[in-house]
From TrEMBL:
The lineage of its organism: Eukaryota, Metazoa, Chordata, Craniata, Vertebrata. Keywords: Disulfide bond, Glycoprotein, Immunity, Membrane, MHC I, Signal, Transmembrane, Transmembrane helix. GO terms for cellular component: external side of plasma membrane; extracellular space; MHC class I protein complex. This is Ig-like domain-containing protein. It holds the Pfam family MHC_I. PANTHER family: MAJOR HISTOCOMPATIBILITY COMPLEX CLASS I-RELATED GENE PROTEIN, MHC CLASS I-RELATED. It is a single-pass type I membrane protein. InterPro entries: Ig-like_dom, Ig-like_dom_sf, Ig-like_fold, Ig/MHC_CS, Ig_C1-set, MHC_class-I_related, MHC_I-like_Ag-recog, MHC_I-like_Ag-recog_sf. One of its GO terms (biological process) is antigen processing and presentation of peptide antigen via MHC class I. It comes from Naja naja (Indian cobra). Residues 1-19 form the signal peptide. It is found in: Membrane. It comes from the Eukaryota. Residues 211-301 form the Ig-like domain. Belongs to the MHC class I family.
Length: 336
């Protein structure tokens, strides 16, 4: 499948991968890397790009134009430069080797799919996650032209190939003694060790807590007399948050909608959820919010405007919520 916009594709792949591993509720920490090679580089689009993220924050970057691994946050630059002056040079040499492998692999796949030209991409995504309860997770997968090509199953120490043409790669990789065990060890041990190291470097940023500012507002729909109420949460960190509508103290999913947890320019996050109810039952509903920045859960009723929280309230006062979100119309949002 030829792709018209590789820069857009790379952004989408990164965004989806970051979001699909985000859990609601208990806090977790993650480190993820994204590699992408394109067959037809252009202005503003390097042939090869690598980006590394800790807790969704871009901290290292490499591309085939600069050919250098470079820091993207002050905390990694400060601590690594002091404790390991050769860190950047060593990482640059490793990724330059990966760059050559990715270019070769891209040509092999174009030949395998009988593609003589056009824009094509070869991607790798891998990383690990550390949950608050101490449990660990990890993943590694490759994609070709935006589709999953092959995925590593660290429990069976084997590769899974959803595409028949990927079975050639699967047999080759599974046939190399010891390599799959090494990948499992990296994902479950070495990756976690690096994640913990980076968390210690960036603890003032990555381990901080900012409580959400929460507001509930409603409007009556004239046609049928029903009401739509929107609970907005803003200015919170970390990203993990547990928010739901309750009726008589129980989670209520009927006629509910919600957005995605999305970043603010200052590194915090925002989120919203809505509910459609009979106004006669207004007193039965609450917006329930749990977050690490809150000393105890919040339960906001629907009787008029209510606001709580620290930084989020200041953001609301400044009008920044509406500038970013333009008062979302819940009728057009995804129902999940």
């Amino acid at each position: 499948m030829a792709l018209r916009s590789a820069p857009f594709l790379l952004l989408v792949l990164v965004e989806v991968a970051l979001r699909e591993n985000c859990c609601f509720g208990a806090s977790s920490h993650s480190m993820k890397y994204f590699y992408a090679a394109v067959s037809e580089p252009s202005q503003g689009l390097p042939q090869f790009v690598v980006q590394g993220y800790v807790d969704g924050q871009l901290f290292v970057h490499y591309d085939s134009n600069s050919r250098k691994v470079q820091p993207r946050v002050s905390w990694i630059e400060k601590y690594v430069g002091k404790e390991d002056p050769q860190f950047w040079d060593r990482g640059t040499q490793i990724i330059r080797g990966d760059e050559e492998l990715f270019r070769d692999s891209l040509e092999i796949l174009r030949s395998r799919y009988n593609q003589s030209g056009g824009l094509h991409t070869w991607q790798r995504m891998y990383g690990c996650e550390l949950q608050a309860n101490g449990s660990k997770g990890g993943f590694m997968q490759y994609g070709y032209d935006g589709r999953t090509f092959i995925t590593f199953d660290k429990e069976t120490l084997s590769w899974v190939a959803p595409d028949p043409l990927a079975e050639i790669t699967q047999r080759k990789w599974d046939g190399i003694p010891g390599v799959n065990q090494g990948k499992k060890s990296y994902l479950e041990e070495i990756c976690i060790e690096w994640l913990e190291t980076y968390l210690s470097y960036g603890k003032e940023t990555l381990l901080r807590t900012e409580p959400p500012g929460v507001t509930v507002r409603g409007k009556t729909e004239v046609e049928d007399g029903m009401e739509t109420h929107i609970c907005r949460l803003d200015g919170f960190y970390p990203r993990e948050i547990d928010a739901s509508w309750t009726r008589d103290g129980e989670v209520w999913l009927e006629e509910t909608f919600h957005g995605s947890v999305a970043p603010n320019a200052d590194g915090t996050y925002h989120y919203w959820l809505s509910i459609r109810i009979d106004p006669k039952e207004r007193g039965r509903y609450r917006c329930h919010v749990e977050h690490d920045g809150l000393q105890k859960p919040l339960d906001l009723d629907l009787e008029g405007e209510r606001l709580q929280g620290g930084k989020g309230w200041a953001l609301w006062q400044a009008g920044r919520w509406w500038e970013r979100n333009l008062a979302p119309d819940v009728s057009r949002c995804e129902h999940t």
